[in-house]
Write a structure and sequence with these properties.
Blueprint: E1 5-8, H1 14-24, E2 30-33, H2 35-50, E3 56-62, H3 66-75, E4 83-87, H4 92-101, E5 107-111, H5 119-124, H6 131-145, E6 149-151, H7 157-163, E7 168-171, H8 190-195, E8 200-203, H9 205-208, H10 213-223
Parallel strand pairs: 1-2, 1-8, 2-3, 3-4, 4-5, 5-6, 6-7, 7-8
The structure holds orotidine-5'-monophosphate (OMP).
Orotidine-5'-monophosphate binds near residues 151, 204 and 206.
């Protein structure tokens, strides 16, 4: 089985991001480039990181009207990402149009509820109910819209997987036992997420900020 870990390269410097990717590439299955990276380095930066030779997950979390999101999806065809994120709360038409505009080999996955939020945060955005209920509702919407899968925390992935048997499940908010949660609120260990049905494990700081990132990536790989 291929390594399900995608390393989140949330680093401001392109050189440092590329050097880190080169160092740990034997112990991860892909590289995730998010808003911090894309805003700083754009398409040029994505091409640079793609030279490392691993699949690229472009985490742009698109959330706009359907026409705008479809245009953005078309604009990134040239980057040939393996995975792209949109927000499920953009609604069904946006999800359908995002998928229709995506490249043939790109998986479109919808963020349900950010792993940095808990039930109280959710209520403050005006949404009643538990994170579990909210994630299940948006999982159903994503499934109906014909996209490839969702992003959720490891606390919901078992239930989401049960609801959508052949879905593609991206799980961030992962922390090896004993590591700092930081701004993440709904966390589980990488092993638990994998056992519960995650297709991709997104891991950033537990590797990138470790004193020895290669050792940290290797230690995580060994738990899987
Ligand atoms: O879409 C994501 O990848 C994502 C969704 C989510 O709900 N929570 C979340 O943390 N992420 C991303 O996953 C990565 C987690 O990084 P660490 O908390 O450093 O492991 C970051 O790059 C986030 O942008």
């Amino acid at each position: 089985m291929s390594n399900p870990v995608y390393l989140a390269l949330d680093l401001p410097q392109l050189d440092a991001a590329k050097a880190l990717a080169q160092k740990v590439k034997a112990h991860v299955g892909g590289l995730k480039l998010g808003l911090e990276f894309f805003c700083a380095h754009g398409s040029h930066g994505v091409h640079e990181i793609a030279q490392v030779g691993l699949p690229i997950f472009l985490d742009l979390k698109l959330h706009d009207i359907p026409n705008t999101v479809a245009g953005a999806m078309q604009a990134i065809h040239v980057l040939e990402p393996a995975i792209v994120t949109v927000h499920a709360s953009g609604g069904r038409a946006m999800l359908e149009d995002a998928k229709a505009a995506a490249g043939e080999h790109t998986k479109v996955v919808a963020v349900t509820m950010l792993t940095s939020l808990d039930e109280r945060d959710l209520q403050r955005t005006g949404i009643a109910g538990t994170p579990h209920d909210h994630v299940m509702r948006l999982t159903e919407l994503a499934h109906e819209s014909g996209i490839d899968g969702i992003v959720c925390s490891g606390q919901e992935v078992a239930a989401a997987h049960k609801q959508w048997k052949d879905g593609f499940f991206v799980v961030p908010g992962l922390r090896p036992a004993g590591s700092a949660a930081g701004d993440q609120k709904r966390v589980v260990t990488p092993r638990k997420a994998r056992d519960d049905g995650a297709s991709v494990l997104v891991i950033g700081r537990p590797i990138s900020r470790a004193p020895d990132p290669v050792q940290a990536a290797r230690d995580i790989e060994e738990t899987l």
